[in-house]
Design goal:
mainly alpha, 5-stranded parallel beta sheet, two-stranded antiparallel ribbon, 48 helices, flat, disordered N terminus, AAA+_ATPase, nucleotide-binding, P-loop_NTPase, Sig_transdc_resp-reg_C-effctor, AAA family ATPase
Length: about 950
């Protein structure tokens, strides 16, 4: 029997509503699966009830009885209400099993008849609750779900606590949620813990990240919001999902979006949360706090300078009301208790009062950027003086590496710039759009560009705006194909403007058409046009593009083009551009096995990009540094960098397919294979959706590699055959570009296709010899040895593998060296019986190559994996699943398996669940029986 009493909540909450709580849910699930209880706690609006619903729905299906209760603040004074919710519907099932005094006391409490009280019935009532839960548990596990625990009546809480402390060994668990924002903060938390079993796991639901808030807003229908707006929503809400959704709703209902520099509209529902405390402030204290809310970094000194003479007393009054928090280590700094307090305070003020505050701060602030911003917000209408000050402040922000701030200031400057002024409003808006692109705020940049295009007549303004639209599309250039003819028409015969358009046409040729030769020609034309126009920046970018294209093509002119791109004079804006000559040189170095010099080059580029705040370049260079560390066999470091790049890409929406591709390769080398597969599939999907054939081949190569590491040789062949076809059609001939040829050959050997593997090796070897790609040749030697082994030429194969391992070690390709050592140990084991994997283990451990270490561990236990020799019953399992199953057959516990395979106990449990499902079995014992049956057969 299952009893569910739902209070204004769906029985089946969709899992996609639980955003950003994966780790929290995983820990709670593990606790529940182990028979423990869970207490979910956190401030109002953080999603505690959503987490509770997801857990109770999921785990509730595994128990016999689910008892639910909830309450509101207005019901908290009603005694035994929560008890009635919990036990009211199960009394008939257990009443006959309770002693008469207990049954009478409990029925009186539940029905309200007889005026039962804890003082009067005391022990009988407490024992009745305990006996009822024990009686229910005798028929099967019981789960008690209590939401809004802070409003449960004290009598019910006391009874639950009495029972919880005495249910040890009984299959009764509790899953509770409690709000902990009230003062003192720990009070509700401790009260709830005292009413739950001693082994209860407290799980805190904290704020969401900006990316998670963006996902939540999108899920709830607030789509198309500029990333700058999402950033403001995240900052104002403090990451609170309820507050963020309310701010999103207010924006959707607002007839006009806030102007640059203005705060978000704060809806009445959120103002009401703090209005009571704000109304308790004196008028002087409220005005002081308003000045603080308008300042970027408010301090007591700033308030004094702005004319608030009694700032200390006013802030002390606000602190007593819980509106601001005082810091012992920094007594002069003012921090609001929550960003919403500051936003609500500012929203409550009238327009004239705000302008007065900004006027005071325009002279009080010490930072020139802040002074200019306040000066603008204290003014109305167009004013050349205000516009000029804002433009100067934007230049300062740009130099400081704060392009997002510069974009906002330029937009403010455009609003204050009179028509006919020089520079005019369109010029300022275009600067803002270009700053927004630099900051990674592509949505904002695109919106500004379209605004310019709607009214601009000057060809230079229009072409620049078209370039912003194209740049904002990123790798989804096919979506803006119609822009190119319009941009060419606007450019006319102006070589400077034509440089911009042909540079973008070069990128289009690669990304949309997959035609490297045409891309090279467009890049060369752009460089020629730029030289005619005296546009050194445009010439440098075009030459760098041409150099990169020639490098990937294996074109003989590549070194000369790189040298031209690196000639003086250089442009500092191009120096750290991800498409500049420095990036082209890095690509040449890493493809040519000059890893030390490549690391120095990409590290310097990354530092400069971060200094300037160029987000797209930072994301790109993080990937480059991760790739370098991966080549060198520093898998742990590569994984950290790749994950950082992916976080940045997802936060900005820039280069997500590329960052997912590199992160997949890093996960396959030093993380989790399942994660590598997921990321590679994501990258393939994104590239296909964008129509980006360039990155589609990279993503498919990553997917093929992840499948190889996972033990799916057939899947590897499918993916990498597609890569081979794509690169042939693209005109990519340099095997150092994707380095997938060795993987494809190895997988072909595993699936019994050594002849095709030989064809792949021969074709790649010819190109690698022509270009001098030493590490590629060494990897091909490793693959050649596997082909020879498949033909029965084991002695030759062992000699070739030994040579390949030594060669890769000299070149500094640590992971490939370790793979060669692993293959060598396998061949020796196949030839002479049990072999030592110590060398492979040492090298993989040095690289922190965890997935490969797990494979070595399995080979040590079960012997080498040979094509076609895996037990048929286990053929359907992935590599990690086979490793876990092999250790189960040895009798290892989950914790022992986790330690030996360098994974978590949680991952072991999840892997076994998949094994059971795939094999159609129910337990660890069945794995042993299945394997034993196969051996005896």
């Amino acid at each position: 029997m299952t009893v569910r009493r739902d209070f204004k909540e769906p029985v089946k909450p969709r899992s996609d509503l639980v955003i950003g709580r994966e780790e929290l849910l995983a820990g709670a699930r593990e606790q529940l699966a182990g028979g423990g209880s869970v207490l979910v706690h956190g401030p109002a609006g953080t999603g505690k009830s959503t987490v509770l619903r997801a857990l109770s729905t999921e785990y509730g299906e595994t128990v016999r009885t689910v008892l639910r209760c909830s309450a509101t603040e207005s019901e908290s004074h009603l005694p035994f209400l929560a008890l009635a919710d919990l036990l009211g519907q199960v009394m008939d099932e257990v009443a006959d099993r309770l002693p008469a005094p207990q049954r009478t006391a409990l029925e009186s409490a539940l029905t309200g008849r007889g005026e039962s009280t804890l003082q009067r019935d005391g022990l009988a009532l407490r024992l009745a609750v305990l006996s009822t839960l024990r009686a229910l548990a005798a028929s099967g596990p019981v789960l008690i779900v209590a939401d809004d625990f802070q409003w449960l009546d004290p009598a019910s809480v006391e009874l639950l606590g009495f029972a919880a402390r005495r249910l040890g060994g009984t299959p009764v668990q509790m899953l509770c949620a409690v709000r902990t924002h009230t003062e003192p903060q720990a009070q509700n938390h401790e009260r709830c813990l005292s009413a739950t079993p001693p082994d209860t796991l407290p799980v805190k639901v904290g704020p969401l990240s900006r990316a998670q808030i963006a996902q939540l807003l999108h899920h709830r229908g607030h789509t198309g919001l500029p990333r700058s707006t999402v950033r403001d929503i995240h900052r104002t809400s403090g990451g609170n999902p309820l507050f963020a959704l309310e701010l999103g709703r207010a924006l959707a209902e607002s007839p006009t979006p806030p102007s640059p520099g203005e705060p978000l509209p704060v809806p009445t529902s959120l103002r009401a949360l703090v209005r009571g405390r704000l109304e308790a402030l004196s008028e002087d204290a409220r005005r002081t706090l308003l000045v603080a809310s308008a300042g970027a970094r408010p301090t007591v000194t700033l308030l004094h300078t702005a004319g608030r003479e009694n700032a200390e007393a006013d802030i002390a009054q606000a602190a007593a009301l819980g509106l601001v928090v005082t810091e012992r280590d920094a007594p002069g700094i003012i921090r609001f208790a929550h960003p919403l307090v500051s936003a609500a305070l500012y929203a409550e003020a009238g327009a004239q009062e705000r302008r007065t505050v900004h006027a005071a701060l325009s002279t009080a602030a010490s930072d020139p950027i802040e002074r200019a911003r306040h000066f603008a917000l204290s003014s109305t209408g167009t004013d050349p003086r205000v516009a000029a000050r804002l433009a100067e402040a934007a230049a300062v922000a740009r130099d400081r590496g704060a392009p997002s701030v510069a974009a906002g200031l330029e937009l403010l400057a455009a609003r204050h710039t009179p028509v006919g002024a020089e520079p005019g409003p369109h010029e300022r808006r275009l600067r803002a759009a270009e700053d927004a692109l630099t900051a990674g705020e592509t949505d904002l940049a695109r919106d500004i560009a379209h605004e310019v295009l709607a009214s601009a007549a000057e060809p230079s303004d229009r072409v620049r705006a078209w370039m912003v639209v194209i740049d904002a599309a990123g790798h989804a250039m096919a979506e803006v194909d119609a822009v190119f003819p319009q941009a060419l028409a606007d450019a006319g015969d102006d070589p400077r403007l034509l440089t911009l358009v042909h540079y973008q046409l070069a990128w289009r040729a690669v990304i949309v058409e997959g035609d490297f030769e045409r891309a090279r020609q467009e890049g060369a034309l752009a460089a020629h046009l730029a030289a005619r126009a005296g546009d050194r920046r445009g010439e440098l970018l075009a030459l760098a593009f041409q150099a990169q294209t020639e490098t990937l093509m294996g074109h003989p002119d590549a070194p000369a083009t790189i040298a031209r791109a690196l000639k003086e004079p250089q442009d500092p804006r191009v120096a750290c551009d991800h498409n500049g000559a420095g990036a082209a040189r890095f690509r040449w170095l890493i493809m040519g096995d000059q890893l030390t010099e490549a690391r120095k080059t990409i590290s310097a580029l990354l530092r400069e990009a971060r200094r300037r705040g160029v987000v797209e370049a930072e994301t790109h260079f993080l990937r480059g540094l991760a790739e370098t560390e991966l080549r060198a066999g520093h898998c742990g470091r590569a994984l950290e960098l790749a994950r950082e790049s992916l976080r940045l890409a997802r936060d900005t929406g820039i280069g997500e397919a590329a960052s997912a591709t590199l992160a997949s390769l890093a996960e396959a080398a030093g993380g989790e294979v399942d994660r590598a597969l997921t990321l590679a599939r994501e990258a393939v999907t994104r590239a296909e959706e964008d129509g980006d054939v360039l990155y589609l081949s990279r993503a498919l190569a990553a997917l093929g590699h992840a499948r190889l590491v996972a033990g799916d040789a057939a899947g590897t062949v499918r993916s990498l055959r597609r890569v081979r076809e794509l690169e042939e059609s693209l005109g990519v001939t340099d095997p150092a570009r994707g380095r997938w040829h060795g993987d494809l050959a190895e997988a072909l050997v595993r699936v019994g296709e050594p002849a095709e593997a030989q064809e792949v090796i021969d074709a790649a070897r010819t190109r690698a010899l022509r270009l001098g790609r030493e590490s590629v040749l060494a990897v091909l030697d490793r693959a050649q040895a596997l082909v020879r082994s498949a033909r029965g030429e084991t002695a030759l194969a062992i000699r070739q593998l030994t040579h390949a391992q030594e060669r890769l070690g000299r070149l500094g390709h640590g992971l490939e060296e370790a793979r060669a050592a692993y293959a060598l140990a396998d061949l020796r084991a196949q030839r002479s019986g049990p072999s030592s994997y110590d060398e492979a283990t040492r090298l993989f451990r040095r690289c922190r190559a965890m997935p490969w270490l797990r494979q070595v561990e399995t080979a040590t236990v079960t012997g080498p994996v040979q094509p076609g020799l895996a037990p048929a019953a286990l053929d359907v399992l992935a590599a990690t699943e086979r490793q876990v199953s092999a250790l189960v057959m040895e009798g290892a516990t989950n914790r022992e398996i986790a330690a030996r395979l360098f994974i978590s106990v949680k991952t072991v449990e999840a892997t076994l669940t998949r094994v059971y499902r795939k094999l159609g079995i129910r337990s660890r014992v069945d794995i042993v029986r299945l394997a034993a049956g196969h051996r005896s057969g």
